[in-house]
Amino acid sequence: MPNCFWKKCDCPTKTPTGHACTEHSGVNCSMLNGTAISNLNQVNDGMTASLEAEIAELDNDKQVVETKVQEIKTRKVELERKRVDLERAMRSANSMGSRRRVIRQAKNDIITFSKEKDKMKGEIDDLQRIIDHPRRAIRIARARLIIPFRNPTGFCSCNDRKIQMLDILASHIGGWENERSRLLGRLRILLQVVQLQWVTAIPPTIGIFATLIAIVSFGFGFSALILPVLAFMLVMLIILATHIRIHFTTLELINADRILATLILEYYRVQKIPVCQRPAEESQDEEPWDWWEDWLKELMSPMLPQESGGHREPALPSEDEIPPSD
Ligand SMILES: [Zn+2]
Ligand SMILES: [Zn+2]
Ligand SMILES: [Zn+2]
């Protein structure tokens, strides 16, 4: 029963080190730093640790943005209610006294809605920090992935299985990298849109304040005052909707980063797990290459310099001294 990580050979548990597996005559399949790997989570080093730390960081960022989205949504509901209340109060204000109350209410609403802009700006800055945060571990690990995977010493079906697994992971990584850049592109557009919306929202605010002052001083028409206030509130609510979309898109981006980090971590781990290697020539007793070594020893011995100390056993030629066989 094959029990290597790739489920293709009986390396490493059945075969003692240095002895070839029955399936592929290979050695050391799935052996990493002296451990027989049977589970991906057994592959751990500095890189996997920093990737895991970054995944935890992404989870934390996600939590922060999710909480923020809930807060903004609650704020939006409150502001929507204020707008509806003001409109209703405006329509039912028939007496001079009730009109004065509506004007006071409108003034307070303008202040509340104007403050919203500063809140949003602060929140966008916070988001920008999360978006621009360098995911260093992801970048470094990504650069270490061999895509497409190549293994010049691989020869058996364990190696084929490894390549197959990595090919599948690579296609997922590619897909999520595309998704990530699509989300980043959308986010940049939304951030530009919200900037433009802020620019268009400022002049009406100034206009409303001017009108408010005018009505106090000269007694202008009532609806001429309240209608622009309602319009301004509507604009702010539209901006707030864009603001929520920006947060949602950031959440999607964090999610894509998280999936990408997990896939990169998985690829990195699979990439590190060895497959069957051809047994080293010297350590194999039943190796068919033994005759060749003996023959080479004989061939080389007359050429070796004679030692004066009487030690007549010629040293084996090192690998780079062996002449090419053809
Ligand atoms: Zn194997
Ligand atoms: Zn093997
Ligand atoms: Zn194998």
Features:
single chain; 326 residues; mainly alpha; 2 domains; 6 helices; 67% helix; disordered C terminus; binds zinc ion
Structure notes:
- With 326 residues, the chain is mostly helical.
- The protein has 6 helices and 2 strands.
- The protein has helices at residues 46-92, 96-132, 136-144, 157-218, 222-272, 290-300, and strands spanning 31-32, 35-36.
- A two-stranded antiparallel ribbon has the order 1-2.
- Helix 1 (46-92) runs antiparallel to helix 2 (96-132), helix 1 (46-92) runs antiparallel to helix 5 (222-272) and helix 2 (96-132) runs parallel beside helix 5.
- The longest helix has 62 residues, at 157-218.
- The chain is rod-shaped and about 120 Å long.
- It starts with 30 loop residues before the first strand and ends in a 26-residue tail after the last helix.
- The model is unreliable at 282-288 and 303-326 (pLDDT under 50).
- Bound molecules: zinc ion (3 copies).
- One zinc ion binds at residues 4, 9, 11, 21, 23-24, 26, 29, 158, 276.
Instruction: Count every beta strand, where a strand is a DSSP E run of 2 or more residues.
Output: 2
Low-confidence stretches: 282-288, 303-326
Structural domain count: 2
- Give me the Rg, rounded: 36 Å
**Main beta sheet:** 2 strands, antiparallel
What structural class do helix, strand and pairing data support?
Answer: mainly alpha
Summarize the helices and strands and which ones pair or pack.
Elements: E1 31-32, E2 35-36, H1 46-92, H2 96-132, H3 136-144, H4 157-218, H5 222-272, H6 290-300
Antiparallel strand pairs: 1-2
Helix pairs in contact: 1-2, 1-3, 1-5, 2-4, 2-5, 3-5, 4-5
